[in-house]
Amino acid sequence: MGNSVIIIGGGISGMTAAGILVQQGLDVTLLEKENETGGHLARWDRLFPDRRKASEVLDFVKAGLNQVKIVTGVTVTGISKHDYDFTITTRIQHPASSIHSQFSASALLLATGFDLFEARKKEEYGYGIYNNVITSADLEDQFKSGKGILTREGKIPGRIGLVHCVGSRDEKVGNLYCSKVCCVTGVKQAIELKEMYPASEVFNFYMDLRMFDRHFEELYYEAQQKWGVSFIRGRLSECAENPDGSIILKTEDTLTGKPLKMTVDLLILLTGFVPAIGTSAICGMLGLKSGTDGFVNSADSHTSNNSSGVPGVFLAGALKGPISIGEAIADARAAAVQLAGYIKSTTAYND
Amino acid sequence: MIDFGYTLTKDRQFDYDHGDFRFLRLVRSIEPSLDVCIGCGSCTATCSASQFTNFNIRKLHTVIRRGDPESIKAELKKCMFCGKCQLVCPRGVNLRNLILAMNRAIEQLG
Questions:
Q1: CB of A218 within 8 Å of any CB in chain B?
Q2: pLDDT at B78
Q3: Which of A7, A76, A122, A204 has the largest CB neighbor count within 10 A?
Q4: Which residues of A touch B36 (CB under 8 A)?
Q5: Within a 13 Å sphere around the CA of B25, how many CA atoms are in the beta-carbon half?
Q6: How many domains does chain A have?
Q7: Strands A69-72 and A27-32
Q8: Which residues in chain B have Cβ-Cβ distances shorter than 8 Å to A228?
Q9: Model pLDDT for residues B66-99, shown as the tens digit of each residue
């Protein structure tokens, strides 16, 4: 038990950390609530800013997991700590019954990630009401299917709108924070749509374009210069559906100070990050604190961002807030190194 | 028609679906760097004409992209063609040629 680690969450962060920890000679068990590992990355087609296949990154991370015990389809129902040992109880939900199991470890890594904002909460945007309003994740599903992007009526969309900040920077839905990666996702998806349908018009409706990382601003420039994507500064206020299924948008063009009305054939909502639904229960079991935004607070966001404040419990990935895939991998590696150092320094390991 | 003593006020919003994009097409064909504008306002901040009038070069090349070029016709005359806008543009938009292109669009399209 002295060198055993349990990782909760089998997305990109949890899997990356698992790969590093088995390399360190530790006994790693990865618990995942879904039936497959891979998290959100598994449903994404291509990644910003270079548009490489998400599956390549997933394959790279999964290649390191041969010696990891992966348990899928389980929910954590309890965590207790005695001296240096943790006991975790889980439940596997079956239609007929549920199976309870117990796992023990000397350290825990929480990598429970995020959920996508539920776009139905922005009722004025019509997701789930109007057929031709979809989310950025739905669009990735369609890119991945390889069948092309069509309106619900089966037509090539002649005009497409992408709406930034859906569920982010929006106190009305309780999310004051910026989800950070939606801006560049919107630019990437706009380019992909233009590449697919050069004759279609693509418009991005934004408040600010936060091209925070290397090569992002260049991608924005490419979208304008090479692909002719139009950017209109103004948050979508509301939309309505025409009898033919097209969508009428109402926004302000804030650069000219005038309201603007436009019909689009397809509207894509760039949904942001929210804390994963199960994270707060796990935090409750361990006495961990979250911020007012619901994301988990580390011991110190600058100097100890992988420490939870509880000895033996470490944090990795988007449970601490919105991050990109590259950042998740780097953060998970940092957490793994810190966790391995902890294990080696505890008396339990030396017994 | 009976005069009821009132008139309909024209809606001031951009109606993109019924916009006039002839200006945009012509101007863009002459000066494609228009597309990389990020609306920062550097051009207007440094503009000599903007110091003394309500001339706003950023707004003028934005309204043609929204399909509403009418207002540029009277406004463009205020430009003194000093070219400071082009010197400060962080995206390298060729504003002097853009202004020439807009003037040509007014000549050709009325």
A1: no
A2: 94
A3: A7
A4: 221, 224-225
A5: 6
A6: 2
A7: parallel
A8: 35
A9: 999 998 999 999 999 999 999 999 999 999 999 9
Cα separation, A78 vs A31, in Å, equals 13
| Alpha-carbon separation of residue B77 from A60, A204, A295 (angstroms) | 61, 32, 55
Same domain, A203 and A321: no
Q: Which of A224, A255, A258 sits opposite B36 (nearest CB)?
A: A224
Domain boundary among A273, A291, A314: A273
Q: Is there a domain that residue B31 lies in?
A: no
Q: What is the mean pLDDT of chain A?
A: 96
Closest CA of chain A from B69, distance in Å: 12
Q: Assess whether A137 and A236 both reside in one domain.
A: yes
Instruction: State whether A228 and B59 contact (CB < 8 Å).
Output: no
Answer yes or no: do A233 and B16 touch at CB < 8 A.
no
Cα distance from N-terminal residue to C-terminal residue, chain B: 31
What is the band of A83 on the pLDDT scale with cuts at 50, 70, 90? confident
- Residue A50's CB: how many other CB atoms inside 10 A? 9
The pTM of this model reads 0.95
pLDDT at residue A165 tops 80? yes
Instruction: Give the range of the structural domain holding residue B62, as residue numbers without chain letter.
Output: 38-109
Same domain, A232 and A146: yes
Instruction: Answer yes or no: do A261 and B13 touch at CB < 8 A.
Output: yes
Indicate yes or no: CB of A255 within 8 angstroms of CB of B58: yes
Dist. CA A170–CA A159, nearest whole Å: 26
Q: How many domains does chain B have?
A: 1
State residue B62's pLDDT score. Answer: 95
Share of chain A above pLDDT 70, in %: 98
Residues A186, A205: one domain?
yes
Query: Within this chain, do residues A263 and A160 fall inside the same structural domain, yes or no?
Result: yes
Distance from CA of B101 to the nearest CA of A (A): 18
**Residue B93 covered by a domain:** yes
Cα–Cα distance, B48 to B84 (Å, whole number): 8
Is any Cβ of chain A less than 8 angstroms from the Cβ of B107?
no
As for the ipTM of the complex, it is: 0.92
Identify the domain boundary among A273, A301, A318: A273
Residue A141 has pLDDT above 80, yes or no: yes
Return the number of other C-beta atoms located less than 10 Å from residue B52's C-beta.
Answer: 9
Which residue segment(s) compose the domain that A243 sits in? 116-273
- Mind telling me how many Å the CA of A154 is from chain B's nearest CA? 22
- The DSSP code sequence of B29-67 is HH-GGGGG-----HHHHH-HHHHHS---HHHHHHHHHTT
Residues A223 and A106 both lie in one domain? no
